[in-house]
Amino acid sequence: MIPSFDKCFLLMDKYRMLPNIKAHSIMVAKIAHLIARGLRDTGMDISVEKATTGALLHDIGKTDSLSSGKDHSEIGRQICIENNLHEIADIVGEHVKMRGYNPNGKFSEKEIVYYADKRVNHGRIVALNERLAYIIRRYGKNEEEICRAITINFELCKKVEKKLFGNLAFSPDELPNLASKEDINE
Does residue 97 come out as left (phi exceeding 0), alpha (psi in the -120 to 50 range) or beta? Predict the structure, then answer.
């Protein structure tokens, strides 16, 4: 089931999503909505609702992760399954690191949310390189192997960006201006 926006916000409250994470998730949802709508308008088989709700709930496991130290994307995937949100469980589960990416494959809501998340630092839209620098500072722990894995993940994100924007009528640089006007309820 694809949850309504109201259901997403109820789940955010139920799982104690922190205000800064909620602000981040709303901005990720605006970007996902904008990209999904743009792809759908070009004839791609994309569910705007699935991409937007997947983005709203992509960090639903973050609060628990902060105290448990466990992988927040997997916690979030399990939360989705427990709440019968099977259609978005994999989107939530792969928003940090996407598995099985095919650059020539069908466009997916998973790619959209994965990319949108990498463009938002806290509640602000940033370039991929700025977000990469933040993620390395925050999670790299000055360990070469972790920093390398993060960098490789962002290289994949650049490929996803190229794929997505090769079919859109706007560029990645236009996202901040466009998203500021985006209403996810449309």
Answer: beta
In contact, 96 and 10? CB cutoff 8 Å: no
This prediction's pTM: 0.95
Please list the ranges in the chain whose pLDDT falls under 70.
186
- Is 61 within 8 Å of 82 (Cβ atoms)? no
- Angstrom distance (rounded) from CA 110 to CA 63: 22
Residue 103's CB: how many other CB atoms inside 10 A?
10
- For β-strands 124-125 and 120-121, DSSP reports them as antiparallel
If you write DSSP's letter for every residue of 100-143 in order, what string do you get? S--TTS---HHHHHHHHHHTEETTEE--HHHHHHHHHHHH-TT-
How do residues 72-115 score in pLDDT, each as one tens digit?
999 999 999 999 999 999 999 999 999 888 888 999 999 999 99
Question: Residue 147, Cα to own-chain centre: how many angstroms?
Answer: 20
Domains of the chain: 5-180 (1.10.3210)
- Where residue 114 falls (left for φ over 0; alpha for ψ -120 to 50; beta otherwise) is alpha
| DSSP code of residue 170 | S
Distance CA(55)–CA(116), nearest Å, equals: 8
DSSP code of residue 95: S
